[in-house]
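queue> pop job 88
queue> type: inverse folding (structure -> sequence)
queue> payload:
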C-alpha cells in the first residue's frame, strides 16, 4: 500500500511529538510534554485523514 502525503506527514508529526515528550520529560518541562502530546495527536488525526483518502481513492 502506498502512502499519501497526509499519512506520511501524520507519521512525521507523531515522531516529532514523541521526541518533544521525551525532551520534556528529560528537562522536567510540562509545557514541552503537553506540546509533544498535541503534536502526536495531530499526527494521528492527519494519518487517519490520509487513510480515509486512500480508502475513497481505492473504491473509485
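queue> result:
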Amino acid at each position: 500500500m502506498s502512502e499519501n502525503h497526509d499519512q506520511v506527514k501524520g507519521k512525521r508529526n507523531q515522531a516529532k511529538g514523541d521526541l518533544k515528550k521525551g525532551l520534556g520529560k528529560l528537562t522536567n518541562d510540562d509545557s514541552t510534554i503537553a506540546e509533544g502530546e498535541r503534536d502526536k495527536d495531530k499526527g494521528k488525526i492527519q494519518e487517519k485523514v490520509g487513510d480515509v483518502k486512500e480508502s475513497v481513492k481505492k473504491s473509485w
